[in-house]
Write a structure and sequence with these properties.
With about 450 residues, the chain is of the alpha+beta class. The chain contains 15 helices and 21 strands. The protein has helices spanning about 1-20, 105, 195-210, 255-260, 265-270, 280-300, 305-325, 330-335, 340, 345-365, 370-380, 390-400, 405-415, 425, 445-450; strands at about 25, 35-40, 45, 60, 65, 70-75, 80-85, 95, 100, 115-120, 130-135, 140, 145, 155-160, 165-170, 175-185, 215-225, 235-240, 240-250, 430-435, 440. Zinc ion (ZN) binds near residues 266, 270, 285 and 288. It comes from Pleionea litopenaei.
Length: about 450
């Protein structure tokens, strides 16, 4: 009897281990291959966000059935299955000690995720190249990540290798948290460790201080060295399997040069909205452009007058692009969905910024504000779609206010062939613009109030 009890006990332990729905990424000592192990009680159909992901699998265990380019089935219940991904294919990149892998090769998603933990197992050899790893997902501890809640629509990148990493968690009293996983992906930036932290901290704090977010957002922030003379020549937000920001940085840039560069404020401002279809890029680029200078004012990099001047200069750059492009019959919607072809970036960004400026002032006239509206949207509705169209976004924003006007204004902007007028907008915050395009502050308290109200709570 004791024997059978022991057997039963052993069996239970064994089954629990085997049935624990483990998801494990194993990187070998020299980083030439990654093994994905997936254990499950029942057969599973898994999907990758990368269209041709199954083409890159060199080997699988025997009960893995490949269905098409991005789907496979684990056919044997109560088993662990495995996939081998070699890292010398064109889908991955190895630079020195750094391996870059699309998350679509590593993350095979089952819609009924039973255990939302992804384990990363580092090699055991003392001379192994792997020191650190980073997936664009919430981190539970050094070797565990959480599956994203929403189904993924785009593969981002995971990094493995010898690089420095720091997690910054920035909280705001009313409960919005930003968790930044910062990766130094160029060795030349290591000497700038402290000033880069100080800069990123300042930018992120100015954004979190608006309380536009709700709950926790995790961002993988990848820093690369650049040879450009600009402080931050390029930065971009990527969404899909989580959220990443890539930023190229001039290693010679001083801390004050970094802090006074608008680029990273712009990228953080993008986090206020979920992913917007790139055909409607004028809405997301417009919002980031509208918020970037108020964030710099919040960070005490610009005072109110300087910040409003910068906003006006941005709008002027958009106007100049509109005049020089001279395509009078093209609508903003057309210019926005073909920015590359028409080289219409500046007017698309700044016509979008004027749109949000107009929305903000109308909301404020009714005792509300843009950041408050975005906070409500982020609380109620952000996760309803993983990709938002301009139309769906504006319809949901309108549901959050008593006097809907946003959807109609979006249509008006979409169809407009004119660069919008801004005199009235500036006048209502105590600013006039003279014929020589110089800014005049007519009502300083009004202007200060305009900037003070970039705060949801
Ligand atoms: Zn942008």
């Amino acid at each position: 009897m004791y024997k059978s009890l022991i057997l039963l006990l052993l069996n239970t332990i064994f089954i629990n281990v085997l049935w624990s729905n483990d998801y494990i990424l194993n990187i070998n000592d020299d980083m030439t291959a990654i093994k994905v192990t997936i254990c499950s009680k029942r057969p599973l159909q898994l999907t990758s966000s990368l269209d041709n992901a199954t083409h890159y699998l060199s080997k699988t265990s025997s009960h893995v059935e490949i269905l098409n380019g991005h789907q496979l089935r684990l056919t044997k219940p109560d088993s662990c299955h495995w996939l081998i991904i070699p890292t010398n294919t064109e889908s991955t990149a190895m630079t020195g000690q750094l391996l870059k892998v699309p998350t679509g090769l590593l993350l095979w998603r089952n819609e009924q995720i039973e255990n939302d933990v992804i384990n990363v197992q580092s090699p055991k050899a003392a001379n192994a190249k792997l020191v650190n790893h980073s997936l664009p997902l919430p981190k539970i501890n050094h070797d565990q990540y959480k599956w994203p809640k929403e189904p993924s629509f785009m593969s981002l990148f995971a990094y493995f290798g010898d690089f420095s990493q720091k997690t910054l968690r920035i909280s705001e009293q009313s409960g919005s948290n930003l968790s930044l996983q910062i990766n130094w992906l160029s060795k030349t930036l290591d000497s700038q460790y402290d000033s880069l932290i100080s800069w990123i901290n300042q930018v992120a704090r100015s954004f979190v201080a608006t309380s536009v977010l709700s709950g926790e957002q995790t961002v993988q922030l990848n820093l690369f060295a650049s040879h450009s003379s600009e402080s931050v020549p390029f930065a971009m937000v990527y969404r899909g399997e989580g959220t990443s920001i890539d930023a190229q940085i001039n290693p010679q840039a001083s801390l004050s040069q970094l802090k006074t560069d608008w680029t990273l404020y712009h990228e953080f401002a993008h986090l206020a909205l979920p992913f917007i279809d790139r055909n409607d890029a004028w809405l997301s680029e417009g919002l980031a452009s509208y918020l970037q200078y108020p964030l710099m004012q919040k960070a005490s990099v610009l005072d109110e007058r300087e910040a409003i001047e910068e906003l006006w200069h941005g709008i002027r750059r958009g106007q100049t692009n509109y005049q020089e492009l001279s395509k009078p019959n093209l609508t903003l919607a057309q210019l926005s969905s073909n920015m590359m072809e028409f080289r219409s970036f500046k007017q698309v960004y700044w016509r979008g910024a004027i749109f949000w400026f107009q929305v903000d002032l109308k909301l404020r006239a009714n005792g509300d504000s843009l950041v408050r509206l975005l906070n409500r949207f982020n609380r109620c509705c952000r996760d309803l779609n993983s990709i938002w169209q301009g139309e769906s976004l504006s319809a949901v924003l309108d549901q959050q206010i008593d006097y809907p006007f946003i959807q109609q204004l979006v249509t008006q902007y979409n169809n407009s062939t004119q660069f919008p007028q801004t005199d009235r907008l500036f006048n209502s915050i105590g600013i006039s613009i003279a014929n020589d395009n110089q800014i005049k502050v007519l009502d300083r308290p009004k202007l200060n109030r305009f900037f003070a109200n970039f705060k949801a709570h």
